[in-house]
Specification:
The chain is of the alpha/beta class and 295 residues long. The protein has helices spanning 2-10, 45-57, 68-77, 94-105, 125-131, 144-154, 191-196, 200-226, 230-247, 250-264, 268-275, 278-294; strands spanning 32-34, 37-41, 61-65, 82-86, 113-118, 136-139, 142-143, 157-159, 170-171. Helix 3 packs parallel to helix 4.
Length: 295
């Protein structure tokens, strides 16, 4: 495909950096309705559903992509006012996709706003994102206020005649987001209400898709640890961790965090020990979620 071929050809070329200051947080008026088309590039389905629902409540038209290659194809075919680009995606990640986009724009008067979504809150991350052509960045876990501030900074908005009813947005991706407690719930039934409010259809959709995807991710993790493939185990544990915390399966999310950390450190013995408890943790969460779905 053209997009992938061009990415490979230009990934290592230097890019012209746009002189954009990554701004400190601002305060957004909650009564603002935004206007524009946003491309949400995110490979985690649960995170995508939640973020898309909030963006649409804010008045935006949203298209989604599961990796950088899909994002570039959509950008080539359609008009967007902003891209929310997850930095860690399979195949073509957010950094490579942004580098390719800036190369496509070279010699034109086009500049599509790209907001990085990163799980790395370390010092220097802002400079890393800017060096790859991104205009601004958000750290996971995403929160409503921070995302609203970002939209207000980069997109036009109008005063709403009736303020939209926003649900708090919280997409978990780091251990720090849940380490305040030493006890992790098998399933926190209030978590989705905090994410999407009382929208039962969205809650049911999220939970149903989570159960399907989690089974596939568990199988991939069991296969990876059996083959000593710690790279795949790291990726799959990261994905399941984020999805589990999004839907409120906190104990499962914590276990996946530990698996991800041990696999990333190259500790095969600890990884095998932790993965041995994966099926049981998932089954406990599945039972409680299925009971709720049947109610």
């Amino acid at each position: 495909p053209r997009a992938k071929a061009e990415i490979i050809a230009i990934q290592n070329k230097p890019i012209q950096q746009r002189q954009t200051q990554l701004s400190p947080p601002s305060t957004v008026d909650p009564d603002i309705i935004f206007d524009g088309r946003v491309l949400l590039a995110e490979d985690n389905e649960s995170n995508m559903i939640v973020a898309q629902a909030w963006l649409e409540k804010a008045g935006l038209q949203v298209r989604t992509a599961e990796n950088g290659e899909q994002a570039l194809r959509l950008i080539e075919q359609e008009h967007f006012d902003m891209v929310l680009m997850d930095c860690q995606m399979p195949a073509v990640d957010g950094f490579a996709a942004t580098i390719a986009l800036r190369q496509f724009e070279t010699g034109t008067d086009r500049h599509l706003t790209v907001i990085a979504i990163t799980a790395n809150a370390m010092q220097g991350e802002a400079q890393r994102c800017r060096a790859r052509g991104m205009d601004d960045y958000l750290c996971k876990p995403l929160r409503l206020r921070e995302l609203g501030d970002m939209l207000a900074r980069w997109l036009p908005g109008t005063q709403a005649s009736e303020p939209p009813q926003y649900a708090p947005l919280f997409i978990a991706d780091t251990a720090d987001s849940i380490r305040a407690s030493s006890i992790f719930a098998i399933w926190d039934s209030d978590a989705l209400g905090a994410l999407v409010g009382d929208n039962l259809a969205t809650q049911q959709r999220l939970l149903t898709r989570f159960l399907v995807n989690a089974q596939a991710q568990r199988e991939a993790m069991l296969g990876a640890v059996a083959q000593g493939d710690l790279s795949t185990l790291t990726t799959q544990a990261h994905t399941l961790k984020s999805a589990a915390r999004t839907v409120g399966a906190m104990a499962l999310g914590e276990l996946c965090q530990q698996i991800e950390s041990s696999a990333r450190a190259g500790d095969e013995s600890t990884s095998q020990h932790l993965v041995a408890g994966l099926s049981g943790a998932l089954e406990l969460a599945t039972q409680q979620i299925r009971t709720a779905l049947a109610a």
